[in-house]
Amino acid sequence: FQFTGYLALSSILFYGSNLISQGLLTYGELSSFCLYAVLSAGSLSAMSGFYLELMKGLGASSRLFELKDRLPRIPLEGGIKKGNVEKAIRFEHVAFGYEDRDPLFHNISFDVPAGKITAVVGSSGSGKSTIASLLLRLYDPTNGRILVDDVDLKDLDPSYWRHHIGTVGQEPVLFSTTIKNNIVYGSNEPEKVTEADIVSAAEKSNADEFIMQFPDKYDTNVGEHGSTLSGGQKQRIAIARALVNKPNILIMDEATSALDASSEYLVRIALNKLLENSHQTVMIIAHRLSTIKHADQIVVVDKGSVAEKGSYEELIAIPDGIFRKLVEKQTFGFKNEESY
Ligand SMILES: Nc1ncnc2c1ncn2[C@@H]1O[C@H](COP(=O)(O)OP(=O)(O)OP(=O)(O)O)[C@@H](O)[C@H]1O
Fold first, then answer.
1. Does residue 98 share a domain with residue 36?
2. Containing domain of residue 27, as a range?
């Protein structure tokens, strides 16, 4: 493009000087023409860039509008909004399968007692995360029901229900904004969250200490997807985000599985500290079985149903138990893989 520009300019100068020598053009007219030619060329080249950006914008916005027009399978609102949801949750003969897939569960039944810690374990793909999705009512069971304080989850207002739940996923999603905003994002009423609420949530999740070491403290920008933080730091901010709402129910989906050993240790300390002082109903979807020794109840999911239920000590004592084999596999590595 630059070469063509130079070529055009030299042609203009050549023909322009010919016209000047014939008295058909003045020097002033030639220099004005050159100046305008350069300015117009610059504007035209900028327009091609603008056109590209415009096309990109149109493509992105059409995808956004498509997303906006999509209707959720489960409506966001409508149904019972009842007092404080704080009693037990019950999975009653729940059957479920994803669309176009074989059925995943044929009979899942267990209680999640209020104010206690329930851990759900099982081999990879057994459906642990799906249990959390069903509890969040992202899907409805094909059979059976989930009861919350003796009310069918299908009859509760979904948004109202979800406001009672704090979730910490396997891979936390952080936004390119400050730590403070990322924590407040978890609140149902962001305008009511005070500085003290933010700090208290960060202290509970063991995040306050590393946040205070940053020059901008809670105003530090975490970058795109939290790129300026380590995995463990992101996870602890995600835990603070789940806590800022003071939820009655906390779901932690394998909060430590995506971390290396030292980050996992820090997150585990945060979780243990949190659980020790917790009066919430907690469901941990766990892979690292060492994290759930203190759980009040462990539910082992296998082949579409609940295979075992009990405390860590009770389950580990079953000689050929599934839980025992899972623990052995994690403790002694892959030597015992064939046994499960
Ligand atoms: N949205 C989905 N659509 C279709 N199938 C899905 C979907 N989510 C999960 N599955 C399938 O359901 C099964 C159970 O998945 P799920 O994530 O619940 O298992 P998991 O026990 O949590 O596994 P892991 O421990 O490996 O995370 C898997 O076979 C998975 O491929």
1. no
2. 2-69
From ligand 1's centre to the CA of 130, what distance in Å? Answer: 6
Say whether both 273 and 237 belong to one domain.
yes
ipTM of the predicted structure?
A: 0.97
Residues with CB under 6 A from ligand 1: 98, 101, 104, 122, 124-130, 287
Write the residue with the smallest CA distance to atom 9 of ligand 1. Answer: 130
Residues 53 and 131 in one domain: no
Per DSSP, 178 falls in state B
Residue pLDDT, tens place only, 201-254: 898 888 898 999 999 999 999 988 888 888 888 888 998 998 888 888 889 887
Q: Are residues 324 and 192 in the same domain?
A: yes
Report phi then psi at 94, rounded to 5.
Answer: -75, 130
Q: Give yes or no: residues 38 and 119 share one domain.
A: no
Q: How far is the CA of 129 from the centre of ligand 1 (A)?
A: 7
Contacts 24+ apart (CB under 8 A), 32-38: 34/9, 37/8, 37/9, 37/12, 38/9
Closest ligand 1 atom, residue 127 Cα: 18
What pLDDT score does 337 carry? Answer: 42
Q: Among 306, 258, 256, which residue's Cα sits nearest to residue 118?
A: 306
Of 104, 171, 256, 287, which is best to mutate to test ligand 1, by the most ligand atoms within 8 angstroms of its C-beta? 104
Same domain? For 115 and 215 the reply is: yes
Tens digit of each residue's pLDDT (9 = 90 or more) over 55-69: 999 999 999 999 888
**Backbone phi, then psi, for 110, in 5-degree steps?**
-165, 160
Parallel, antiparallel or unpaired: strands 281-285 and 105-112: unpaired
Total domain count for the chain?
Answer: 2
What is the maximum span of the chain, computed from C-alpha positions, in angstroms?
A: 109
